[in-house]
Amino acid sequence: MTKTAFLTGANRGIGRAIALRLADMGYNLMLLARNESALASVVSECEALGVAVESRAGELADEPFMDLAIDAAVKRFGQIDVLVNNAGAASHGAVQDADMSAWKDVMNVNFQAVVYLSSKLLPAMIAAKAGAVINISSISGRNTSAGTAIYSASKFALNGFTECMFEDVRDHGVKVSSVMPGFVETDLTRGIGMDSSRMIRPDDIADSVQYILSASTAVCPTEIVLRPQYRP
């Protein structure tokens, strides 16, 4: 029976790489992203690999939007076997200069949406005694630096939430994993004055997702930390 994966932030960079890898692995897909035209391009690429794809463009801060996406995926595919929470937002600046609207968006996308989607999709995985939730976090969820307060806070929260979720569901056969990369060559890291040729590639993140999903039922890779081999 063909399995189905639900992926957020699927329209570019890491999300696109993960979507294509999942399609290559034979997963049917529900893809979510903000940019409808970019998302449509990824849908076409995945369909060309021979899998069925549903997609929805919208905001992860909008719970009704997420509910509609879940309903559409279940109606089309039945069981959702894998949730990959990849969508990410960033806002940089000192705490004393915080743009609270932008910071709220970071928390909504990086953390609150993960909590919401996980809570909605886990019950069916628990009932099936199988499944996986993979959260694309960041090394910023372990390390801090000036100007990254809200981003780091969202990733620290995500890492703690991921660890607790694993403990909640491990005995039901559900894998829960956090992938924590350092600098990845994406739109978010362009123009920051670093050598992008030395950064992690989006396909490296897709490798980690594939490794988690390919692991035996006896083991769960709960954390994967990826660092650029050479300093960017």
Structural key phrases:
232 residues; alpha/beta; seven-stranded parallel beta sheet; Rossmann fold; 6 helices; single chain
In short:
The chain has one domain: 3-Layer(aba) Sandwich (Rossmann fold). It is built from 6 helices and 7 strands, in the order E-H-E-H-E-H-E-H-E-H-E-H-E.
Structural commentary:
The protein has one domain: Rossmann fold, CATH 3.40.50.720. It is 44% helix and 16% strand. It is built from 6 helices and 7 strands, in the order E-H-E-H-E-H-E-H-E-H-E-H-E. The protein has helices spanning 13-24, 36-47, 63-77, 100-128, 149-169, 202-214, and strands at residues 4-8, 28-33, 53-57, 82-85, 131-136, 174-181, 223-226. A 7-stranded parallel beta sheet has the order 3-2-1-4-5-6-7, sandwiched between helices. The longest helix has 29 residues, at 100-128.
SSE blueprint:
Blueprint: E1 4-8, H1 13-24, E2 28-33, H2 36-47, E3 53-57, H3 63-77, E4 82-85, H4 100-128, E5 131-136, H5 149-169, E6 174-181, H6 202-214, E7 223-226
Parallel strand pairs: 1-2, 1-4, 2-3, 4-5, 5-6, 6-7
Apparent shape: globular
Average residue-wise pLDDT? 95
Radius of gyration, in Å, reads 17 Å
Strand order of the largest sheet: 3-2-1-4-5-6-7
Distance from N terminus to C terminus (CA atoms, Å) equals: 43 Å
Question: Which structural category fits the helices and strands?
Answer: alpha/beta
Unreliable parts:
none
CATH topology: Rossmann fold
Count helical runs.
6
- The CATH superfamily label reads NAD(P)-binding Rossmann-like Domain
